[in-house]
């Protein structure tokens, strides 16, 4: 891992926190504030999504790539919705989206099949339907 580039773990955490914290678009207006009970739900979900639930999954590259791509695509879609709704600033979205798109481009069956070390561990983690890409990226950070 290069020291000058943030790891996927850091990028994913920032993305999730940006989605939870939010702010409005380009006009400099303060972010829309979530009601306290909704904010508590967001924080509970964020905590759950960062936990590996099935650490013993067998490596299955097709499933791992599908699961990982689905998770990243969903994070990008939620970010776009939060941006449009005023819960996230353009700067916050621009800060997280390129890293997620880079990861999305790197996720492939060929990459999984040739992966070793931490990268293989990530794909093995993603082989379980019970794990989220955020949890696997946190547990097994690699550079896209």
Descriptive account of the structure:
The chain has 144 residues and is mainly alpha-helical. Helix content is 65%, strand content 0%. The protein contains seven helices and no strands. Helix 1 (8-21) packs across helix 7 (133-139). The longest helix has 25 residues, at 61-85. It is globular and about 45 Å long. The termini are close together. Residues 1-14 and 19-26 have low confidence and may be disordered.
List the helices and strands and how they pair.
Blueprint: H1 8-21, H2 36-49, H3 61-85, H4 90-106, H5 109-114, H6 117-126, H7 133-139
Can you give me a brief rundown of this structure?
The chain is an all-alpha fold. The chain has 7 helices and no strands.
Task: Indicate the percent of residues in helices.
Answer: 55-70%
Low-confidence residue ranges: 1-14, 19-26
Number of helices: 7
Report the C-alpha radius of gyration, rounded.
16 Å
Counting helices, strands and paired strands, the structural category is mainly alpha
The SSE string, one letter per element, is: HHHHHHH
Estimate the global geometry from the Cα principal axes: globular
Largest sheet: none
- What fraction of the residues are assigned to beta strands by DSSP? under 5%
């Amino acid at each position: 891992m290069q020291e000058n580039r943030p790891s996927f773990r850091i990028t994913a955490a920032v993305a999730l926190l940006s989605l939870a914290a939010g702010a409005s678009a380009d006009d400099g207006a303060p972010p829309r504030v979530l009601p306290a009970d909704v904010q508590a739900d967001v924080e509970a979900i964020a905590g759950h999504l960062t936990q590996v639930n099935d650490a013993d999954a067998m490596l299955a590259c097709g499933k791992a790539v599908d699961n990982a791509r689905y998770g990243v695509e969903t994070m990008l879609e939620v970010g776009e919705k939060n941006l449009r709704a005023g819960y996230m600033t353009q700067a916050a979205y621009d800060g997280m989206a390129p890293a997620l798109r880079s990861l999305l481009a790197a996720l492939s069956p060929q990459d999984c099949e040739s992966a070793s070390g931490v990268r293989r561990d990530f794909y093995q983690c993603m082989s379980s339907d019970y794990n989220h890409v955020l949890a696997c990226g946190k547990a097994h950070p690699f550079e896209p």
